[in-house]
């Protein structure tokens, strides 16, 4: 393996450990330090954090990779079960943070513009609807990944990515491939083109919706005249934290995903993005948790207070031990 591949694998390992630790800390902080002013929002934060932890564990279990050979884009997972179903599941689960992000922005928008609707998040029927929406998105991504691509047949495209993967990573995987083989013999493939278009529409529309809700929320916060100064500051801080949180999937998931999907179709010979895309995905759970801990003051102050308390306890224990030793002498 090249030095770049080795460095990227080390990055994934560091992100795995750091992501699990930070998300466990965030779950603890949500449970222990959430103020009454956060209301049901803390449950959304908990769902997002659990989803991040699941993505970390799934990445370790599936060990996915993206690869580009000519105009052929491919994704593969390295598991005990060598099957395209596993790879399609990996792709589909990457959509979960996008849905949760949209729900987060909807909550913030309603809390400012339609506060009477916030109680819906406490109703089982509405929560069931949101869960159904998330599961529906996941299933849509799975079906598109499995049936809107190739890789199930032994053909030139699959053999080329299998050989390229073996050369780069030192292991031969035959059956777990999701392949988009564009412009084979200069022929246009309508099904693959449709898959690329649908992928672009789903991701860009998700990003557009989140951006629109954020802009509207900022607008109504600035225009609110019946909102107390304290509530105004709280809403602004939470929205800034959420916007910062939204930048994480944009940088580490949206942009790499869109580039790796579109570069092969437009015949752009840039292979670097395929090497770094999957490792960049692992940065998402790390920075997502870090931003929430740093920007939500309840959690930041609560965790810092625990650290200070432990230091004081250790110093007190050291002084007691030192004094006892001196007296015995």
TrEMBL record:
Protein name: G protein-coupled receptor
Keyword terms: Membrane, Transmembrane, Transmembrane helix
Transmembrane segments: 13-31, 43-62, 85-106, 126-144, 190-218, 238-259, 271-296
Pfam family, one: 7TM_GPCR_Str
Keyword tRNA processing in annotation: no
KW Transmembrane (keyword) present: yes
Source organism phylogeny: Eukaryota, Metazoa, Ecdysozoa, Nematoda, Chromadorea
Superkingdom of source: Eukaryota
SUPFAM superfamilies: Family A G protein-coupled receptor-like (SSF81321)
Family annotation (Gene3D superfamilies): Rhodopsin 7-helix transmembrane proteins (1.20.1070.10)
